[in-house]
Every structure is written in structure tokens, then in C-alpha cells.
């Protein structure tokens, strides 16, 4: 079997995408070769292979995972399985192909795997339309930590591409921020490699200011774990090391489970992005495929001005859905963007918002602590009221009125006496 597995990998390396090849290398190295590599293929029976897959299904998880809530490593629960249905099905496919090679060579007369049932897909994996609908409702409910980790997955990046992003993946070209996909995190050895899944996966596109500020925030967050070297990843563990693919998947499943949602595969987020782009009347199919890296045509015009303008539309359409509170930045002038560093735009927006309820007189609007907490005190009609809260970073001033009413704390509320109003009059 060991010789057959070596021959299989040599052919596989020539005929499949690098990502698929690395996946097969991992399955053979970690599961197939240790159990079957030393066996003679003609001695293998259906019972042997059935027992092999039974043992894989029962194999316990031993490696701890990192919990983003407790900020600590968590030991696997008793009885928690290492392999899910998808890797079990992949392993079955590899063994089946190797057995067919043995049949072609005349080493065996029949395939003993024919009597072994292939692992069924998880029952929790449901139809894609249901997943897309779920993701629609999830976007606005993401916390800041969850948004930092998974926003780029909603943008259509593959898991290895997203986990492999580094300092050089975010470049500046004048007022544009360019997101460059030219590397990925290999599952084998957790190393960053320029070998992508396909030739078309190598792409770059300008992003609007809303996504640009998100990427800048991500870089600043990463600097908190130490210097970012050319091969370091922006998304990392607390020790600065890359995040394992399975750890990333576990985190994603916890996000879904915390909202009572099914454990949809993260790869379905690429389907979500493709679906959202298809719904935009100005985004052609060719542009969407170029943006997602689905086409097998080499993209050689990414850095021309025309390509930048073309590829700005897909990411701008998605950014309005992913960061609605920053979408105004895509339309704002430079002066308007600079003004949000002060409280003036938010003061005017609050004044206009509450003016719908009656006459408004603002008593105070200022920052009251080192954490950015502000207080807004005003007389609205016949009520004197003081709101206290935080203005989210780069939030659209037009949204602050409703946000304040829904999220800010009311620390004072008094009915203004008629005599007092008359005296002021």
C-alpha cells in the first residue's frame, strides 16, 4: 500500500490543484499511511477496510482549540471526534482511487472497498438557499471580534487566502487601498506559500474607504502581537502564530451555534458573496468571476487604472452590506471624512433627529472620559434629557440619532415646568 500511495501522490501532484493535493497529502500522512501503509494490498479485505473507517470515525480529538471569548485554550470535550463527515468522505475517495490503481495493475481481482459504505454528509448541512438567508441575518449581529475574523470570508476570500494575508497583502496606491491575493496559508506545516489553488486565484482589487479602514484596523490590531514580518499573517493566535484551518472552522461554528444557527460550512460564504453580486444590476458575471477568482483566464490587468475602476464596483457593493455604518465613507468627500474626527457632524445630526419631536435646545455635547464616552444633553419639547454613550469609530453621522435612542443610556430625564418655560420665554 505504501508504494501505491506514493504513486498516487505523484500523479495527483500533476493533475489536481495545489490545494487539493495538499489536502490529500494530509489525509495520507495522518490517517491512511499509519494504518494501511505497511499492509500488502492483496491481503486487505472488506472487513479490514470497514474496521479502518470505523476507527477513523471514533478517533478522538486531542489538540486543544482556542476560545476567542475566554481568550484561552480549551481541551476537547470527552468523546469529541477528530474527523467530520467531509474529511472522512475525502479519505474514502483516496483509498478507493488507490484500490482502482491496484486493480489496473492486476495486483487484486476485486475492490475490497466496494463493500464499505461511504460516510454520509452531516445532517446539519442543509440547503444552500437556507444558508444564504441565515448569513443575511448574521451580518448585522456580528461582534467587533467576529467582524475582524470573518468579514473577509463574507467578501468571498477562500479560507486559506484569508488566513494567509500578510502586511504586503494590503497596499496603497494613491487614495486607493489595494487588497492583493497572491499567497495562502498551507494546511501542511502552517506555512505561507505563493502557491494558490488555481492560477486565477492570484488577483488584486481596490477597495472602498469602508473596507480600507477595516483593513487598517486589522493591521493595527495585529501590531499588538508584535512586528509584522513579510511572512507573518494578519489573523493570528495570541502568540502571533498563524491560525490553523480547523481552529478557524471551529470558531466559525461557535459563531453560528451562539445564535442557534446550523453549522454551515464556511465555504458557503463564497456562495453568499457570489449570490449577492448576482443581485446587483451593475455587476456582470465576468466581473463577479474576476473578483472571486473563479475564472481560469489569467488576470493581467489588475493594476491598470481601468481594472481598478472595474473591480471597485463588486467590493463596494458588498461593503455596503457588510459595513453599513461605514458605507457613507464611499460617497463622502475628503472634508466630510476628516470632520468625523470631531463631534460637530454628530451634534448636528442629533439636533436634526430630535427636532422631529419638537423644539430642541442643546445644553451640552462633549466627551466625558478617556474611553470616548460622550454625553448629549438637550431640552426636547418639554423634556430635559441627557443621553450617554459611545459613537462607533467612523460611524455614519446620519445614523447617530437612531443609534443614540436605541443604544445610549438615559442618565437624566426631567419634565420642564411650564413656569420655567415661560420664564425662559
Report on this structure.
The protein is elongated and about 95 Å long. The chain is an alpha+beta fold. Helix 10 (268-278) runs antiparallel to helix 11. It has helices at residues 2-15, 18-36, 46-58, 85-105, 128-139, 144-154, 159-164, 209-223, 245-258, 268-278, 285-292, 305-322, 334-339, 344-354, 400-407, 418-424, and strands at residues 65-67, 72-74, 170-173, 176-181, 184-185, 192-193, 203-207, 360-367, 373-380, 383-390, 409-415.
Q: Brief description of this entry?
A:
The chain has 425 residues and is α+β, with helices and mostly antiparallel strands. It has 16 helices and 11 strands.
Strand order of the largest sheet: 8-9-10-11
- Gyration radius over CA: 27 Å
The secondary-structure class comes to alpha+beta
Distance between the termini: 96 Å
Binned, the helix content reads 40-55%
Silhouette: elongated
Largest sheet: 4 strands, antiparallel
Mean pLDDT: 83
Strand content: 5-15%
Looking at this protein, list some descriptive labels.
single chain, 425 residues, alpha+beta, 16 helices
Give the topology, please:
Blueprint: H1 2-15, H2 18-36, H3 46-58, E1 65-67, E2 72-74, H4 85-105, H5 128-139, H6 144-154, H7 159-164, E3 170-173, E4 176-181, E5 184-185, E6 192-193, E7 203-207, H8 209-223, H9 245-258, H10 268-278, H11 285-292, H12 305-322, H13 334-339, H14 344-354, E8 360-367, E9 373-380, E10 383-390, H15 400-407, E11 409-415, H16 418-424
Antiparallel strand pairs: 1-2, 3-4, 4-7, 5-6, 8-9, 9-10, 10-11
Helix pairs in contact: 1-2, 2-4, 5-10, 10-11, 11-12, 14-15
Amino acid at each position: 500500500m505504501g508504494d501505491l500511495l506514493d504513486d498516487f501522490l505523484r500523479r495527483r501532484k500533476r493533475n489536481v490543484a495545489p490545494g487539493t493535493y495538499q489536502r490529500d497529502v494530509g489525509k495520507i500522512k495522518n490517517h491512511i499511511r499509519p494504518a494501511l501503509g505497511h499492509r500488502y494490498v492483496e491481503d486487505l479485505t472488506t472487513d479490514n477496510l470497514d474496521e479502518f473507517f470505523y476507527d477513523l470515525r471514533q478517533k478522538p480529538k486531542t489538540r486543544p482549540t482556542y476560545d476567542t471569548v475566554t481568550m484561552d485554550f480549551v481541551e476537547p470535550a470527552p468523546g469529541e471526534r477528530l474527523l467530520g463527515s467531509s474529511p472522512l468522505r475525502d479519505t474514502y475517495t483516496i483509498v478507493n482511487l488507490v484500490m482502482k490503481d491496484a486493480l489496473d495493475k492486476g495486483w487484486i481481482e476485486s475492490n475490497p472497498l466496494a463493500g464499505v459504505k461511504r460516510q454520509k454528509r452531516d445532517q446539519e448541512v442543509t440547503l444552500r438557499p437556507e444558508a444564504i438567508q441565515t448569513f443575511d441575518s448574521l451580518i448585522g449581529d456580528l461582534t467587533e471580534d467576529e467582524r475582524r475574523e470573518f468579514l473577509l470570508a463574507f467578501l468571498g476570500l477562500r479560507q486559506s487566502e484569508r488566513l494567509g494575508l500578510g502586511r504586503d497583502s494590503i497596499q496603497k496606491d494613491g487614495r486607493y487601498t489595494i487588497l492583493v491575493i497572491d499567497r495562502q496559508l498551507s494546511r501542511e506545516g502552517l506555512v505561507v506559500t505563493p502557491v494558490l489553488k488555481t492560477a486565477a486565484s492570484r488577483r488584486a482589487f481596490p477597495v472602498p474607504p469602508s473596507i480600507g479602514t477595516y483593513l487598517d484596523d486589522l493591521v493595527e490590531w495585529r501590531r499588538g502581537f508584535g512586528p509584522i514580518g513579510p511572512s507573518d499573517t494578519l489573523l493570528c493566535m495570541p502568540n502571533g502564530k498563524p491560525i490553523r484551518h480547523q481552529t478557524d472552522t471551529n470558531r466559525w461554528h461557535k459563531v453560528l451555534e451562539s445564535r442557534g444557527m446550523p453549522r454551515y460550512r464556511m465555504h458557503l460564504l463564497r456562495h453568499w458573496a457570489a449570490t449577492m453580486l448576482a443581485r446587483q444590476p451593475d455587476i456582470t458575471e465576468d466581473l463577479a468571476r474576476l473578483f472571486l477568482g473563479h475564472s481560469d483566464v489569467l488576470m493581467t490587468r489588475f493594476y491598470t487604472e481601468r481594472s481598478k475602476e472595474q473591480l471597485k464596483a463588486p467590493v463596494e457593493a458588498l461593503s455596503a452590506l457588510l459595513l453599513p455604518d461605514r458605507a457613507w465613507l464611499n460617497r463622502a468627500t475628503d472634508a466630510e471624512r476628516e470632520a468625523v474626527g470631531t463631534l460637530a457632524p454628530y451634534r448636528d445630526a442629533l439636533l436634526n433627529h430630535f427636532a422631529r419631536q419638537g423644539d430642541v435646545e442643546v445644553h451640552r455635547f462633549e466627551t466625558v472620559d478617556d474611553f470616548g464616552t460622550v454625553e448629549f444633553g438637550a431640552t426636547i419639547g418639554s423634556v430635559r434629557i441627557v443621553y450617554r454613550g459611545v459613537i462607533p469609530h467612523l460611524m455614519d453621522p446620519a445614523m447617530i440619532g437612531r443609534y443614540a435612542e436605541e443604544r445610549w443610556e438615559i442618565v437624566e430625564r426631567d419634565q420642564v415646568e411650564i413656569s420655567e418655560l415661560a420664564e425662559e420665554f
